Predict the 3D structure of the following.
Amino acid sequence: MIRLIASDVDGTLVPESASQINPEYYDVIRALHQKGITVVIASGRQYASIRRLFEPVADLLWFLADGGSVIVHGEDWIVPKAIPREWVTEFMHDLSRIPQADCMLAAPEYSYTPFENSEMFCWMRDSYRFDLRATGGWDKLPEEEIIKMAVYHPTNADGMCREWLAPKWKDRLYFANSGVCWVDFLMPGINKGSALRTICDKLGIPQEQTIGFGDNLNDIELLEAAGTGIAVSSAREGLKEKADYIVPNFETDGVLQAWKTILLSAE
């Protein structure tokens, strides 16, 4: 019996940066909720962005946002561990020297960028519908605690981070590859899998009664934490190797059909 479904968003439920989702998901989420099945939306996006995507059913959901660095359900917020401020200052100094690199600093409620109207800033504001604020420079930090640093590069974020940042930072921060353009940096032990385990412990749901869906390498821990791990057909090979099953991708609403099957089994 499945009591909890956890799913990534971009590349799994919708195309990258989509601001709309098939509205049939809302009906299925309502039906799952009525059957006592918890739905967790697990994303590298900020909370505000994924809440907008699921606004009609947001009060029924658990949100695992910013790669697991913040958990939200209703009015309840859980923020496991912030990055030390001196590390953020040092990291931004290092990043400022890398050509074409940009960065978002995630606080629990907002995201911050060094400069307004950069390519990344406009993309995240207009497509992902992020709540963004510009600080005015690499050396200017927001007052809030930073829970994630998302590094952007237009063509090769992973290669750039491995070359320029990994030698210095690999022993201090956890790297989560979340796409061609993105690598997320979080405190060690903070990821989608650890956040899912926190939710399951809070709700008293055993691992074997959970199922996780994803498409990218930053979903590996999510699938490992779930009793059953499912990758979409367009997923990265590294994730497919960890999956128990493969379903069609968002182009044919493969995850939606899987949710409907779970719902039927709960009848």
User: Anything to note?
Assistant: The longest helix spans residues 192-203. Residues 5 and 95 are 37 Å apart (CA to CA). The mean pLDDT is 96.
